[in-house]
Amino acid sequence: MDLRALVFVVFLWPSQAVAQCRLCAPSTAAAASAPSRALTIEIETALDFSRAAQSGRGSGSIAVDEHSGARSVNGLIDLGGMALKGTVVLTGEPFRHVRISLPASIRLSASEGDGADVVDLRTDLSPDPALDASGSLKFSFGGRLIVSSHSSGDLRGRISIAADYQ
């Protein structure tokens, strides 16, 4: 039986904030609603699918739940290890509502050139998230890793997380 070991770690990359035009005069309404503190993103924990191996059957998947961090393995041999849901902390102006977006999918790659895709990225955020009284919001996210029969190695990638005030 051919076993190919896989290790999965996803690194997070906060998206860069878009600067507003400083030469343009803001309207009175826009100036009144403009945030006094910039919104920042801190990655506390990277999403980690842990370890698995392929048997001769080919492809499979590993899912990490955004709420519990529980891992489920389908079509692969579970080699154990600790999977981790990703955690992010936003800081900014207290009580401001925010819009957070994750990509539809990302590509992981290994130094040998093999790759796999992370899909179904989901957060544990409420439908209308807002920063708390201290100006912070902590949330978790998970996703599903799709592994083809040609994937092997230490697969890594970056997730671009975008956050803006509403």
List the helices and strands and how they pair.
Elements: E1 4-14, H1 28-33, E2 40-45, E3 48-54, E4 60-64, E5 71-74, E6 77-78, E7 86-91, E8 98-101, E9 105-109, E10 115-123, E11 136-147, E12 153-165
Parallel strand pairs: 1-12
Antiparallel strand pairs: 1-3, 2-7, 3-6, 4-5, 4-11, 7-11, 8-12, 9-10, 10-11
Describe the structure.
The strands form two sheets. Strands 2, 4, 5, 7, 9, 10 and 11 form a seven-stranded antiparallel beta sheet that branches. A five-stranded mixed beta sheet has the order 6-3-1-12-8, with no helix packed on it. The chain is built from one helix and twelve strands, in the order βαβββββββββββ. The protein has one helix spanning about 30-35; strands spanning about 5-15, 40-45, 50-55, 60-65, 70-75, 75-80, 85-90, 100, 105-110, 115-125, 135-145, 155-165. About 25% of the residues are buried. Helix content is about 5%, strand content about 50%. It has about 170 residues and is mostly beta strands. The chain has one domain (about 5-165). The protein is elongated and about 60 Å long. The termini are far apart. This is DUF4402 domain-containing protein.
